[in-house]
Design goal:
Blueprint lengths: L1 H12 L4 E4 L6 H10 L3 E4 L3 H13 L4 E6 H6 L1 H9 L6 E5 L3 H7 L10 H4 L6 H12 L4 E4 L6 H13 L3 E5 L5
Parallel strand pairs: 1-2, 1-3, 3-4, 4-6, 5-6
Helix pairs in contact: 1-2, 3-5
Amino acid sequence: MAQARLILDELKKLGVTHVLTVPDNSSKALLNLLWADGGIQVVLVTREGEAFAIAAGLWTGGKVPVVLIQNTGLLETGDALRGTAMRMRVPLLCLITYRGYAKLAVRGLKVTPETVDAELLSKAGLDSVAVLTEPTLKAWGVPYDFLHADADVLRIAEAFRKAQNLEQPVAVLITRDTT
């Protein structure tokens, strides 16, 4: 539970009041800690796009929300992220679990918007959502960084501050299941 505990501790240091999420297997350990701790309110949503809209409302009301979603859900959020969080300039930390990252890394694939095509998206043994994650964030103008190991947990605070400074959502891609 080291990584999940470190993430929870960082969120508490940052004064996070709410985590909006659609639970997934990758974030299960973190969610279990959040529920057990009780210091940060967990808000379950039915679709990831709702998370961005509700987070914008919480922020407007003076709260400090964080969105925790899987990269599959990131693709569903397009209009809410663009039309609400980006348009309203909501300084929002987004923790995104990166399903399929390990298979990209093993193959040494560095995906860019220019390299995404039908052949890559249909390649056996690759999760197409992993292929689309970073190009999608780039297309939507969302800066991002990676949390690969426990030592990278400080990137959460850096991304939080960047979101505040830029007045927009900033993502941290969590490349392994929380433990």
